[in-house]
Amino acid sequence: MDVQGLLRLDVELKAYVEDVFSSWRRKGWQERSHCYLTGLMLDGRRKSVEPMAARLGEANDQSLQHFLANTPWDPVPVRARLARKMHKAINPTAWVADDTGFTKDGRLSPCVARQYTGTAGKITNCQVATTLHLASDEASCPIDWRLFMPESWDPDSDKASPDVDERRAAAGIPPEEHHRPKWQLALECVDEALSWGVPAPPVLAADAGYGDAAGFRHGLTERGIPYAVQISHTLSVLPETATRTTPPYRGRGPRPKPRYEQDPMPVKDHIIAAGRRRTRAITWRTDDEGVAELYFGYNDDEHASIKPCPSNLTRAAVRPAHQHRRTSSGPAARAAAGPTDPAGPVRRGGRDIGRISCPTTAAPDAAVPGRTRWSAHLP
User: Fold this and answer.
1) Which of 20-34, 73-87, 253-267, 328-342: highest mean pLDDT?
2) Where along the chain do its domains lie?
3) Are 127 and 147 in contact (CB under 8 A)?
């Protein structure tokens, strides 16, 4: 955004700062935050403090650096206010759990390590943050996040680096912070957002990095949040009709517990076994505003110029196989695979398989919440 554009928005930006940062009472803090936000929005390749201060005409860039790095303000009230404000503005149709990476050159930034990030599309030296987004077809906004700590930064881990204590001390990491899986960080974000008074979502979407974790799916179920998550095609499942039986007691040892007699199978094989009779043709399309939606055979002037993108969707009800020998039976959920090709029900190794926690009466209904996840990807 150029200077003239920012000048036109200056009144609105100041009102935004006064609203979102209303918990800050110390003199000068809101002015510094207004200055920093202006620098982020102003045109310029580099967004670090020194070049931003030069573009803003700041005489002392050290004061801005001190404000960002050393000012002891509590971020929680700011996040809470932003989350409630964005919920009203976006009217989200889903929450999205995702992660994003921040590439780094050195090894002193907190929790930096060689790890995969979708930002770079490869394993590289970076920080990774788990994020929670409000999302709709029109907009998305992250409302909470956690910095992921690799095991190399955890002194209690066997994979800790030799100088982990020195690196943690230099980065200011509290001693009580340890490695936690990303799905657990996502559940912490969900709990915190709910504690702020943000209404629970109609559905939560996530990729396989979260969907493959049974603890994540169970955590959402315990919180009463429906989900539509991607899962790996190798994940083992049982058919919805699987029943538990109790083997007869033979008079010695502990009494047997109920168990599923059916053998679990990969979800890809389960969907292939369902056959093409369970496949329904759907069409994705992009409207004039660039919004991806499902196209259900519109035949009117409004949609005449839209070029449809055909696909197929296969769905089947399954149970989680990791419980097939436990006394408790997992709830049935919908597994949907797509897109498909004429040669078989699953293409590209089944990478596009999703799991939906709530029953669906129509195949397209299963695809809509999973598609919402795309709108929350950070650049």
Assistant:
1) 73-87
2) 3-70, 75-200, 227-245+259-376
3) yes
CA 48 vs. chain centroid, Å, equals 26
100 contact partners, CB below 8 Å, separation of at least 6: 117, 118, 119, 128, 129, 131, 378
In the block, which residue shows the tokens 């209690």?
156
Beta-bridged to residue 333, according to DSSP, are 318
| β-strands 204-206, 94-103 pairing | parallel
Rounded-to-integer distance, Cα 236 and Cα 264, Å? 6
Spatial contact of 283 and 294, defined as CB atoms under 8 Å apart: yes
What are the angstrom distances between the C-alpha of 340 and each of 79, 101, 319, 360, 366?
Answer: 41, 31, 23, 20, 15
Write out the two tokens for 96. Answer: 């999205």
133 bridge partner residues: 96, 142
Peptide bond into 51 cis (omega under 30): no
For residue 53, give every residue at least 6 positions away whose Cβ sits within 8 Å of its Cβ, in sequence order, or none: 39, 60, 61, 64
Phi, psi of 155 (to 5 degrees): -65, -20
Give Cα 4 to chain centroid, integer Å. Answer: 36
Tens of pLDDT along 260-272? 888 888 888 888 8
Long-range CB pairs of 178-181 (<8 Å, 24+ gap) are: 178/149, 178/154, 179/149, 179/150, 179/151, 179/153, 179/154, 180/149, 181/213, 181/215
Residue 356 neighbours by CB under 8 Å, 6+ apart: 226, 227, 228, 229, 333, 334, 335, 336, 366, 369, 370
SS3 347: coil
Query: How confident is the model over 182-241, as pLDDT tens digits?
Result: 999 999 999 999 999 999 999 999 998 999 998 999 999 999 999 988 888 888 888 888
CA 239/CA 273 separation, integer angstroms: 11
Rounded Cα distance, 241 and 6, in Å: 61
Query: Between vectors from CA 143 to CA 152 and to CA 70, what angle results, nearest 5°?
Result: 60
* pLDDT tens sequence across 100-126: 999 999 888 999 999 999 889 999 999
d(CA 152, CA 48): 27
